[in-house]
Amino acid sequence: MVGKGQSIHGQWGSRWAFILAATGSAVGLGNIWRFPYVVGDHGGAAFVLVYLACIAVIGVPVMMAEILIGRRGRQSPINTMRTLPAEAGATPAWQLLGWMGVLAGFIVLSFYSVVAGWALAYVPFTASGMFTGADTATVEAAFTGLLDSPGQLLLWHTVFIALTGYVVSRGVRSGIEKAVRVLMPLLFLLLLLMVGYGMGAGAFAEAVAFLFTPDFSALTGESVLIAMGQAFFTLSLGLGAIMAYGSYLSSRSSIPRNAGIIAGADTVIALIAGLAIFPIVFAAGLDPQEGAGLVFVALSYGFGQMPMGMLFGTLFFVLLSFAAWTSAISITEPATAYLVESRGWRRPRATFAVAGTAWFVGIGSILSFNYWSDMQILGMNFMGVMEYLSTSVMLPLGGMLMALFAGWVLPRSATVQELGFKNQGWYMAWLFLVRYVVPVAILIVFARALGLF
Q1: Rounded CA separation 136/350 (Å)
Q2: Helix axes 204-212, 178-201, angle to 10 degrees
Q3: What CA–CA distance (Å, rounded) separates 359 from 83?
Q4: So what's the pLDDT on residue 3?
Q5: How far apart are CA 306 and CA 315, in angstroms?
Q6: Is 377 helix (H, G, I), strand (E, B) or coil?
């Protein structure tokens, strides 16, 4: 039985190693960079409620499906989606789902690394006191100057990709597991320090009201699509990362319990990040609808006006860099595992090929802010297209197909065995969600976003 085996890449040392790694995958730029600015852009608390509903009704069931598919296949996503359909007597076209996940991972990693490079660049910027007492024009000029400098962007993009590749090249136990055991506790500690700072120096009550007092008139059909895409992006669903991590999970470990802990931790950290960021934004009288530059422009200015802002601003960008690193590691793993399995390459060579390709594609995102700034596709620059295509199209589509595969194609005996529910009612509820609710919800949101109704 495939599900009883073990991946050739090894196995997690414990279920908590898997939880830390998967939570590290989930907790990244999606929580600390993207979540605050999409909340700001789409009305605050009302968007948060839609996002939480997407996590509970769509995200958790799909995460369970992705983990069980990975553990059942015990291979890279591409090879798992070749093997399991064949065993179930289904069409080999399902392999395209594995390829789509790896492609989405490439796209995300390419622009993700560029944004993570911004975070790395801002560590010395903030630590040097560049923003202490600076006015908004100075802070905006620093960010604009960084984006206008392809050389600087390329340097930090390269550093980040190299750090990510180093960890992945060392393997599951010696690389990924060791890294997340150190990085995740540090990340959480830094985040709590930031919340404490916001409570003491920022407009904390105003931030709480913004995050938890909903105004549903601010919601649009696009907001719902963005919320669903954010749920997939922040949980790393549809990228093959959770499937790959699931393939290294012990057959004795509970998938439903693990998925619940990971989704819960990810959601709590996203909300804590909001409570760390928005007090600074509001205390400085800034607009939460700053967009993608929220943490780099608005927060840098806010820290510059506050007591001990240089120290806590520096800690914030270290936190952002750590969060991005844990996620990038997971995104790099599926394609690396495939090359090791199918090409017989040693892991360092496979990692270099994957990271190098993502690095090259990322140059397009770098150039979209300077030399290609006038080039627009559907009203977006190159990086905007990459982000929209991956987070709002490929990730939800991949999640929908995973739900359909787990619910309709895999034999019920296989899903019952992998999920291990002691209560039949919980299993039937999961099966109903992945068979009907998840696909229909995603299709409705896609149709609304396309203006079909």
Answers
A1: 45
A2: 110
A3: 30
A4: 43
A5: 14
A6: strand
Q: Is residue 73 pLDDT above 90, yes or no?
A: yes
Q: How confident is the model at residue 1 (pLDDT cuts 50, 70, 90)?
A: very low
Question: Shortest CA distance to 438 belongs to which of 102, 66, 19?
Answer: 66
Burial of residue 394 (number of CB atoms within 10 Å: 0-12, 13-18, 19+): buried
203 pLDDT higher than 70: yes
- Mean pLDDT over 1-7 rounds to 55
CATH for the stretch 2-449 = 1.20.1740
- At 2, the pLDDT band (50, 70, 90 cuts) reads very low
Report the distance separating Cα 315 and Cα 310, nearest Å.
9
Q: Kindly list the distances between the CA atom of residue 219 and the CA atoms of 46, 329, 351, in Å, as whole numbers in the listed order.
A: 7, 34, 42
Asked if 53 and 257 touch (Cβ cutoff 8 Å), the reply is no
> How far lies 375's CA from each of 145, 180, 364, 367, 369, in Å?
19, 39, 11, 10, 10
Structure tokens of 382? Answer: 């190159």
Paired residues of 380 in beta bridges: 377
- The tally of CA atoms less than 13 A away on the side-chain side of residue 357 is 14
Say if residues 132 and 304 touch (Cβ distance below 8 Å): yes
Kindly provide the b/e burial profile for residues 401-432, where b requires at least 16 CB atoms within 10 angstroms of the residue's own CB.
bbbbbbbebbeeebbeebbebeeeeebeebbe
Please give the full DSSP string across 56-85, using - where no structure is assigned: IIIIHHHHHHHHHHHHHH-S-HHHHHHHHH
| 391, two tokens | 């987070």
Q: Position of tokens 């065993």?
A: 87
In this prediction, residue 191 has a pLDDT band, given cuts at 50, 70 and 90, of: confident
Mean pLDDT confidence for 432-441: 92
* Six token digits for residue 452: 């079909």
- Angle at the Cα of 238 (from 243 to 71), degrees rounded to 5? 15
pLDDT of residue 452: 61
pLDDT tens for 246-274 read 999 988 899 999 999 999 988 888 888 88
Q: What is the mean pLDDT of residues 81-99?
A: 94
Distance of CA 21 to the CA centre of its chain: 12
C-alpha distances in angstroms, 50 versus 218, 361, 366, 442, 453?
A: 12, 33, 32, 13, 20
